[in-house]
Amino acid sequence: MPRTPMPEREGRLRALDFEEVNLGYTDQLAILEATRCLQCARPVCVDGCPVGVKINDFVAAVADGRFDEAGRIVATDNSLPAVCGRVCPQEIQCEGACVMGRRSSPIAIGHLERFVADRARGRGGEQAPATAPSGWSVAIVGSGPAGLACAADLSRLGHDVTVYEALHEAGGVLVYGIPEYRLPTAVVEAEVGRLEEMGVVFELNAPIGRAESIDDLLDRHDAVFIGIGAGLPRFLEVPGEHLVGVQSANEFLTRVNLMGANRSDAETPVLVGKRVAVIGGGNTALDAVRTALRAGADSATVYYRRTEDEMPARREEIRHAREEGVHFEFLLNPVGFGGSERVETMELVRMRQTEPGDDGRRSVEPIEGSEVAVPVDTVVVAVGNAPNPMLSGTPDLTMSRRGTIVTDEVGMTDKPGVFAGGDIVTGGATVILAMGAGRRAAQGIDAFLRSGALVEID
Ligand SMILES: Cc1cc2nc3c(=O)[nH]c(=O)nc-3n(C[C@H](O)[C@H](O)[C@H](O)COP(=O)(O)OP(=O)(O)OC[C@H]3O[C@@H](n4cnc5c(N)ncnc54)[C@H](O)[C@@H]3O)c2cc1C
Predict the structure, then answer these.
(1) Where in the chain is the domain with CATH 3.50.50.60?
(2) What does the angle CA 224 – CA 226 – CA 228 come to, to the nearest 5 degrees?
(3) Most buried residue, 69, 349, 392, 425, by most Cβ within 10 Å?
(4) Percentage of the chain with pLDDT > 90?
(5) Ligand 1 pocket member 434 (CB < 6 A)
(6) Which of 20, 78, 168, 173 has most ligand 1 atoms within 8 Å of CB, for mutation?
């Protein structure tokens, strides 16, 4: 049986608004897809999931029409299933491991996870079982997936949890980075609301490291988890990058996603002009270019210095972008921007692939004298992010040369009582890896609080 496709809105139509692209499975489609599962004796898909969702069990429950039970199984290991069902790179995780992938196409685990999570959300979700209060209190700095997952587990373990978030909305990249048409804000709000119902307190507009330090938090909490992400944009560092109209993907996406800057009545609207160029090949570049189309660009082009095969973006995002009218230019790298005050042109050099190195990977190198110039009105730079340096001055917190926080395997830092996880430890990664780190740290914090010293956990 072929894989059951996800119903989607038509490409050119959906590029006109920010409504969600994927429509979700119906009950019948979900059962049809779930019955494709072979129910392997050794479910390797579970090994492929960084938080260990019992995929075989929840898919079996869907196949039987036991949807509520499927939702409960997923929620045991994943506190943000509606988010992960939408944005996880399943093709390189659970679905990448699926045995059916060797015969035909893997089970659509992500689509099924989204189905059970949305269904549970529509019905008010499950109330977390009441846990006896432990009397300990934990501060979480940052409300991205690492912080939210850590908060959920700590709250279930009976601890008082307060999340300190620098921005005016909770969710981290889930709200300020990933656009509405891929992950509706309502989905993140519902997940945050569920945590509030469990007793987690959110302090918004609270950037730690400015008015208050980690040591201030330790004065009124028994432990601290740092999950502040890697939100500092990298630039190309080429001439003309300072021109008006050249901006980082972080700025562009945050302004549109959090401040509605795509609307003409916005206080500080983004002026995309006719021709938008986006530099980069990851999810962020694709989010920026598809957002630019929706914000009114006539043409939106991704320029990537390698080939399509090397693009780190999810394949689904690349396909969706093409269907919406995005252009792609490969093996081209910007070397400068021209214009008097506002950017008018972008100069690029052609790249060629080198022979594969010892690791089998091909690199790229510029072809001398191959420069070309293209007219542009807006340029969005999406070439990666660095760790946020706001807490780098914290005494006793060891940082790596890359600016990440150094921890052990359960997220404990060198500063007693302080744990960290997510992108601030690994550098830019994925939602599910950040969540996995948040969950491991919750176990570590619990063990630290109960024993006074960290005990080994499995
Ligand atoms: C545009 C974009 C698209 C992406 N798409 C995908 C995708 O499709 N799939 C996927 O798996 N991954 C994707 N990623 C990566 C993924 O979103 C991140 O790996 C993940 O969000 C990291 O989670 P985190 O909790 O560590 O940090 P973040 O999500 O970055 O959250 C950190 C939070 O901490 C807050 N903060 C920062 N400093 C402070 C401070 N001093 N005090 C208080 N709060 C602070 C920030 O405001 C933010 O809310 C994408 C990333 C971007 C930028």
Answers:
(1) 137-231+387-451, 235-384
(2) 150
(3) 425
(4) 78
(5) yes
(6) 173
